[in-house]
Design goal:
By secondary structure, the chain is an all-alpha fold. The chain is built from 4 helices and no strands. Residues 13-17 have low confidence and may be disordered.
């Protein structure tokens, strides 16, 4: 009986390792939001790169997702949060960077249904 409990515990630990990682969500509105157009543009570019990285992560893990569904879907959640943040940055740019010309940040495309 003891051996069966140990095997069950080991199986549970191994299975939980396949559950995926916790998402690292970005807040849409942040305390350090400021009207510096350069900072807004820099953050938007960094977010765009991170979205591309997460999209690559999703493709790389497609086989894993098909075999063991990632219940947290971390990459999907992070992409959605970053896209919301990009929307907020675009609004900030429109409000505060008009004198510098058109907004430096294109609005993100709406997320596609999965």
């Amino acid at each position: 009986m003891r051996k069966a409990e140990i095997i069950a515990a080991a199986f549970s630990v191994a299975l939980s390792a396949c559950a995926g990682r916790a998402p690292q969500l970005v807040d849409v509105v942040q305390a350090q939001d400021h009207v510096d157009c350069t900072a807004i543009t820099t953050e938007a570019q960094a977010n765009k790169r991170r979205i591309a990285e997460l999209a690559s992560e999703k493709k790389a893990n497609l086989a894993e997702y098909l075999i063991i569904m990632d219940s947290q879907a971390a990459a999907n959640q992070e992409i959605a949060a970053l896209q919301s943040r990009q929307q907020e940055l675009a609004t900030l740019a429109e409000q505060h960077c008009k004198a510098a010309g058109p907004p430096p940040i294109p609005r993100p495309a709406p997320p596609r249904p999965q």
